[in-house]
Amino acid sequence: MRLPTGGRIDRSVTLHFTFDGVGYTGHPGDTLASALLANGVHRTGTSVNLGRPRGIVAAWSDDPAGLVQVEEPFPEPMLLATTIELTDGLVARGIPGRGRLADVPDTARYDRRHAHCDVLVVGAGPAGLDAAREAADRGLRVVLVDDRSEPGGSRPTGDETLVPGILHLQRTTAFGLYDDGFVLALERRNGTPHQSRQRVHRIRAKHVVVATGAHERPIVFEDNDRPGIMLAGAAREMLHRYGVLAGQRIVVFTSDDAAYEAAADLAAAGAAVTLLDARETAPAIPGVEVRAGTMVVGSEGVERVTHAVLSDGERLPCDLLLVSGGWNPTAHLFSHGRGDLRYDDALGAFVPGEPLDGVTVVGAAVGPPAPNRLVLWRTPGDPAKQFVDIARDATVADIARSVGAGMRSVEHIKRYTTIGTAHDQGKTSGVVATGVAAELLGVPVASLGTTTFRPPYTPVAFAALAGRDRGTLFDPERTTALHPWHVGAGAVFEDVGQWKRPRYYPRTGESMDASVLRECAAVRTSVGILDGSTLGKIDVQGPDADVLLDRLYTNMISNLAVGRARYGVMCGADGMVIDDGTVLRIADDRFLVVTTTGGAAKILDWMEEWHQTEWPDLRVHLASVTEQWAVFPVVGPRSRDVVGAVFPDLDVSAEAFPFMAWRDTVLDGVPVRVARISFSGELAFEVNVSSWYADVVWRRLLAAGAPFGITPYGTETMHVLRAEKGYPIIGQDTDGTVTPHDLGLAWAVSKKKVDFVGKRSFARPSNLDPLRKQLVGLLPVDATTKLPEGSQIVEGAVLPPPPVPMLGHVTSSYHSAELGRPFALALMKAGRARIGDVVHVPVDGTLVPVEVAGSVLVDPEGTRRDG
């Protein structure tokens, strides 16, 4: 079917490709679709729901049927054969409705770029090229994007001169127009979307010119979905762009003058062409049999159309049946920008309505000329066999059912029938569906309108949207300055926020449980060391720093003395705990706020929001210093010996260095800050040093602790130690419905402050309910069962019929070296009033009796804290 001359392909080079296991040849410049048609292949697959044969309908992204699966050079499903540029070695196959995802990593590179311009022109057809030249001549910064491989529109002639001095991007589809002139465009590098790198351009334009042309629409008739039935403009483009004559005996069915050009060109190329015009009068075309007042009402054939069934009953032989019912302006981008469309009765199409700020529409996108057009949506026939949306196997009968079910909005009809929800976004079916629905409802087409055009205009791979942000870059991994040391020590890591934190340090043959028990015992009996550098740290400075913190924390911060630290709780406006941590007063006008690891960014944002939107008069500045400070808690009864040995100038005695105090010192000229803060209930010192010196200070602490068997421990041990002391983890022991009082932290809620964020909510009746869930400890009666976290707590030893009343749930659960048994923390209704009671927790189908205990299970008197 390839003509000996013509087209824009490079006939001097032969490309080899395989489709459905059969080898074929083509040329550079071909698409997979044009190469298949050149080899006489019309069928490309089967339909998604009915399994009917499907073939190529259009010549570009408006094709509703020609989806294929690419296998080589890289597997990718559901691609349009009309938009895949042919490459040597390409392997593809037709799909039975759906494709398959790759089971190997994608080796292609994807990227993104940013561009700013005065004018963005979308579409490099004649109208777009003129607009780009005019803007460039005025000295404006211009970006021109076009989704085809070369400029010139659907029928390039070879004399399209490029516009100098602009950013000109071919093979680039503008797939979304957003607020303030922001456009996303996908560039297919080297024209091979299945293998070569793709690039998303993020373009910010002062003005957008939409020169996107128009889509030809079909006329619906019985069995209009067979392979070999195409749009007339598509067959003409195959002829002129690729030198492919898609059929020898061609029937053209139209109600519009535009199809006459296609019929004439195909006849001139050597095909026998019969043109059927639904209008009562039709002009003559040399070499073409023209029949006026005649319609196609059906088709025959299996793998490919063989006959057109006419309105007078004649079965007209053909190997290609072309259809043209007119043209719809490609108004998608205009609609993305919230542009209103209006129905043009003469065109039978929706066109841009009122002007849109920052957007100009030119060329056929405004509305192509329509002399003597007859608006015809469908011909007589069986509605169940008249396909409106070929991609979805949706028929006129489906529209009739939706209308019969009471649907009156095209948005409802779309969702009832699935018309317009496939890869082509209803480019050939959407307006036709509106026309058919209007006929069935007996209302004007204009009153129904169109469904909403939403980005993306054409499908975009998730890989392209992700760009380089995939794998470890999808959610960037943050590591502390000691990460190489932890790796060398054999640490097993866990993700905490974006941080890689050592979870435990197993010895040879040691399980996690065994490692954690060993680490816990070392901390409780001698000394351990933790890399706590990931804790959020916010530097708060300014004359009103204490005022801001008083308003955000539940307890008083302004009366904190320089050189002291205080535990603090932050609540949301609803009075529920959102974070906790310590606050160090560095100077009269400076504080260091320490947050949880996962809450660092959220709390800085929270503080800035209140400062900037509610209290902009406060003279205060905030800055994250999380990565500037490395923090090493040295914990356990021998921690004073270790810290005293490393910092001999620092008096670490209990009298000189009390709990919740901090002191500055130096180590070989390096400033170091040491704080007496404990998250374990043991004697502890937190060593703070610039991250530049983290490794050497860590090693000095390990060397000083060697005589005492100092043990590095991870986050799992930290969790066990804090849980034994009843210290909550925000986000684990809380769920967004927990107040400080529920956690037993009423002492951290100031009764002196006039106000703070969340205070008013504490007086709500629901917050005073004695049956609120409260943090308690749970001790399995058998002293051996570890309760699964998240398990529900029930009242009796026998479950009642559903729904079973729940008392609460387990929030944390561990084995304890100190207690010699498993234990748990839980949120439980009226929990503190039920200490000593026995309740039950379902575990693997068995109700496990547990004793309710106070939340502090180790050293409730707190005598260990001071050593």
What layout of secondary structure does this protein have?
Blueprint: E1 15-19, E2 22-26, H1 32-38, E3 43-46, E4 53-55, E5 67-72, E6 76-80, E7 90-94, E8 110-122, H2 126-137, E9 142-145, E10 167-169, E11 172-178, E12 182-188, E13 198-210, E14 214-216, E15 229-231, H3 232-242, E16 249-254, H4 258-268, E17 272-277, E18 288-292, E19 296-301, E20 305-310, E21 315-317, E22 320-324, E23 327-329, H5 332-336, E24 341-344, E25 349-352, E26 359-361, E27 387-389, E28 394-395, H6 396-404, H7 410-417, H8 430-441, H9 445-448, H10 462-466, H11 483-488, E29 492-496, E30 499-504, H12 512-525, E31 528-529, E32 536-541, H13 545-552, E33 565-571, E34 577-587, E35 590-595, H14 600-614, E36 621-624, E37 629-635, H15 639-646, E38 662-667, E39 670-675, E40 684-690, H16 694-705, E41 711-712, H17 715-724, E42 773-780, E43 792-793, E44 808-816, E45 821-829, E46 838-843, E47 846-853
Would you write up a description of this structure?
The chain starts with 14 loop residues before the first strand and ends in a 14-residue tail after the last strand. Strand 46 (838-843) and strand 47 form a beta hairpin. The chain is elongated and about 110 Å long. 18% of the residues lie in helices and 30% in strands. The chain is built from 17 helices and 47 strands. The mean pLDDT is 95.
